[in-house]
Amino acid sequence: MNELEATIAIKNGDENAFRHLFNLYYDRLVAYIVTYTHDKMTSEDIVQQAFINFWYAKDKLKDFKSPKSYLYTIAYNEFINTINKEKRQNNILNIVYENALRDRIEEDHEALERRVNKMNQIIQTLPPKCRQTLEMNKIKGMKYQEIAETTGVSVKTVESQMSLAFKKIRKGFEKENLHLLFMNFHKKIKLELLN
């Protein structure tokens, strides 16, 4: 089966043709994305997602054209999406951090203690793997890639665990309308978590 035949078959929902193109381009696409990420595991996650996107967009394929450039474009776009998602999360954390520092100056010590205790209680209720991921990132300062390598999971799994932790923390503080998240009292939280 050549590429054009595979393209026509994929448009008709042929999973064997999809598998054929996957086997043909997977390693090449990973090598291509590695030139941007400099990380094989992250690149593999990106390429796998790119192939999923390719399958769902199969109706856009042209019968007379090789899917190669389309696959490379999808993989590159998925890389950009991954970078943007990471930047958005970092920007949100920076905003929350700055607001928290401003709040900290204005509030008294007792209120700060209550917030720290509440944060610790929320963290204690997280599922074990989620809590471990959060601690590795926010307390130990490990990057998502380092956490993935240490725990033997994908970067996407780390992102998913962090997202779950953020949701639970935001929910825990939403009624009080607080902008509190990990601020300058990392050490205090760390001590509580380690005890």
Automatic annotation (TrEMBL):
Q: Does the keyword Transcription regulation apply?
A: yes
Q: Which InterPro entries match?
A: RNA_pol_sigma-70-like, RNA_pol_sigma-70_dom, RNA_pol_sigma70_bacteroid, RNA_pol_sigma70_r2, RNA_pol_sigma70_r4_t2, RNA_pol_sigma_r2, RNA_pol_sigma_r3/r4-like, WH-like_DNA-bd_sf
The record places domain RNA polymerase sigma-70 region at 21-88
Q: Where on the tree of life does the source sit, at the highest rank?
A: Bacteria
Q: Where is the RNA polymerase sigma factor 70 region 4 type domain?
A: 121-169
Q: Which UniProt keywords apply?
A: Sigma factor, Transcription, Transcription regulation
- Report the family membership: Belongs to the sigma-70 factor family. ECF subfamily.
Concerning NCBIfam families, the annotation shows: Sig70_bacteroi1 (TIGR02985), sigma70-ECF (TIGR02937)
Name of protein: RNA polymerase sigma-70 factor
Originating species: Flavivirga jejuensis
